[in-house]
Amino acid sequence: MVAARSGAPFSGARDMLVTFLGRMLRREPVSRPSCPPLRRGACETPMEALAWCHGRRGSRRSPRHHPPRCGRSAPPTSHGREPSMITIDRRRILLDGAPRLVLAGEIHYFRVPRAQWAARIAQLRAAGANTVASYIPWLWHELPDGTVDLTGATRDERDLGAFIDLCREAGLWFLARPGPFQMAELKNEGLPYRLYREHPEIVPRGWDGAPAPTPDVDLLAPAFLAETDRWYDAVMPVLAERLVTRGGPVLAVQLDNEIGMLSWVSNTPVLTDAALTQLRAWLPAHRTDAARTYPALTADDDAWARAVRSPEEAWAAPLRVDLARFARDRAARYVAHLRAAAEARGVTGVPFLINIHGTGGGSCETFPIGISQLEQSYSGIDGMLSGSDHYVGEMTLDTTTDLYVLNALQQAVHDDDQPLTSLEFEAGTGDYGDGLERLAEPSTADLKSRLFVAQGNRLLNYYLFAGGHNPPLEEPVGDGNDRIAITGERHGFAAPIGPEGQESPTYAPLGAAIGRLALHERHLARAVEELDDLALGLVLDSYATEHAHPGSAVMAEIVGDLRAHRGAGQRLALARSALLRGHRFDAVDLRTMRPRPDGSGRRVLMVATSRHLDAAVQRHLVAHLEAGGSLLLLGVLPERDLEGADCRILADALGAQAAPVRHDSGRFHPSVSWRSDPSLLGETRVPWFQELTASGDARPVLTTVDGETCGIDVRVGAGRAVLLAAGLPSRPGLLGHLLETLGAGRGLALHSSVPGVFATTTRDEDGGRILHVLNVTGYRPQVQIVLDGEEIALEPAPHTGYLLARGLDVGPARVLAANAELAGIGPDHLTFDVPAGPAARIVLETPRQVTADGPGARVAHEDGHVLVTADGPVRVHLGALV
Q1: What confidence score (pLDDT) does residue 598 get?
Q2: E strand segments, 173-301
Q3: Which residue ranges form the domains of the chain, and what is each CATH number?
Q4: What predicted TM-score, i.e. pTM, was given to this entire model?
């Protein structure tokens, strides 16, 4: 997690403006509220659930197992439970062939007295979760003499194996996070102080040779890798003998944490002497003109170090690009080393996880920086999964769009098997500063959870589920508290379970949310979101912005342009406008665009454009147009590549020329309107615009009040593009008109009397379907949905989400349609919650006799189906065969 959260005691900043101390104080572990027991019909433990879960076993092709690799012999099974096989296949997590939702809560055993471990685990299980997650801090387990205690010899709370065994005894799985970095507000982000004393060469030097202001290290420094291997020597065997494949509870292992985050937030590239030597060798293989670009490449070490640490403007632009790509290559090599080290110590047959950082200031706008930094470490690699790490506060019009885009962009770099996961899923009061300054709405974690599973997340780790106390350091360092963490004695103030074990107001609501997900697990663990012929274009190069020399004007110009025009467009205008009309979309990595399977090239892409755009991406966009695809472009006309050189591949294809961007000021207040139909966009104030001129049959569509064209509609090859070069806000009517004109039809049309209702659908391999509806507002709007031609009228309650069955097999019945959510499933009954409207209406197909209990409950037969109506919640009884 990066930087400021609203309500935190210190102000936040984004990107490289975030200071290290402020980041850490704002980032106090997010408490994940706990939940009440699973609803009737759900499972008590993961192992019982394996027997209950009756989804399809196997798949159309061989799933991805995680076979042991070469290395040290694996420890024997020692826990008396049958070994399980975990596989990743078609974006599902399967345990012994059964698709599962992994619903975890983070409990830091090292912050909880051992005598209370069982109680905290019981609270998590009572909340309905099936997995315990925890960091395993190197800082905590290493003693001053360099030895490592993982057995509790020096302190009971260091007995890692005992804690994991308690999880197993409670019937829960365990998600291990052994670092070496943990963050979690720990001193040195979880690394022992000894490392910095004994190996000063691992401390990064950044711009102008300045040492890093954070506890960051050179991850590929030989000394650090050797010390990490030594830590893995101690911790990995404890995990290995407890893997699910050997009858234990450990079902996944996270490697390190938020890799690259410290370097990003401090604007400190890793430019140690060793890293510079590696860069010098790396460049010729990755840039054909390396010697010409960098005159000091063949000079002595001192000259080379000065050229990189304090670059001249002549090579500052290419250096920015090369350093970003070099850093990503190094991160991938580091992760590969950690994985190999874990496997050599017996950790095989389970997925390895990478935690992606990037949210800050209550926004996900910077989250793809983490994707950019780390995707080479996991994308398309067998046995690797990525997980999000997000802190945005309550669900609103803004944050709901933000999170939808986050999931779409994260999935864009996955392969066809890798599912989404969320390794730090914010859930708690939000009072991270312990100042009674925030109390999240009860619906917050519920609405977020519903959105994430609808978009295909198979693992949610509610962080931090239980608070605790930071024990003292073994050796005082005189830093004001001499404890293992910066938060003082108490930790996890915002957690559903507080530091002393007390339940916060968020515990019960989160439990209800987890229980409802568990009840629908059979569908949610294997369903996929149904999508329209529409995608958001991901330009990963636009997020390689974490480093820029503070004295370089050319770096500042390029980075500023990229930051201003990326993702879903300024103010999320592209994504929010589409979502509020019901469009369901994913994202496409524009570096690796592939033609549609049917070869039609008809997919509509929404792309935020900056002046600087990589030549290869420009070529891909033109090829998409020429093949019959469509583009909706929002931003400035691309005219340069990432190094600032002229690059007009896309502009020339559009036949467009652009004047300099004009921004508003105290004396200039630009406004624009839709030229042909002001009802689509009347005169609207914008912060900037760019005048365009176009040749050929390009048609002006957006103009300023002074008549300057800033939007064009043009045909290219068999395709069509619309470029809007102005800072437009969200306008669902206009954007929807353009999307439909460009060929992006809607399988789900959404209209709400109040903006703030979101809807999508999921379908499983048996044809089961759910309509997901989220009302993130405090109002009860009139909502009309047209789903595949069928009209659905709803009145969703404020701050409420619904999982509405649309052809879902539940025991001896099939729920063909319902405007109320299933709240309980029994062998002879179904319970439905308060309807999303004045009366419940449930259509069933079943061979059983049906009766119903509830206010105004009525049962009728209609068109060969059973119709149940009621004035509120209703229980449907399924009796004898008719």
Answers
A1: 54
A2: 173-177, 250-254
A3: 28-70+78-190+233-265+324-526 (3.20.20.80), 534-742 (3.40.50.880), 754-881 (2.102.20.10)
A4: 0.92
